[in-house]
Amino acid sequence: MVFAWKAAGLTYNRFLAVSARAVRRSLKEEKRLVAERRGEMDLRFAKWEDGKQGDVKHLAQANTAANAASSS
Prior knowledge:
By secondary structure, the chain is an alpha+beta fold.
């Protein structure tokens, strides 16, 4: 027996993300806002060189900048 998410070509993590988004969107306004705030992620990273930490950047902003640079 193959799981439906696997048959659809999704990874388990992607399946969970899609499911969670669908549940959050189905909630009433007040509870939906609380749930959406809980679902946000704030990922940051820094590049290390010669044992020193570089600038800390937000992943979403760095991703947007990289996409803009590659499409230009």
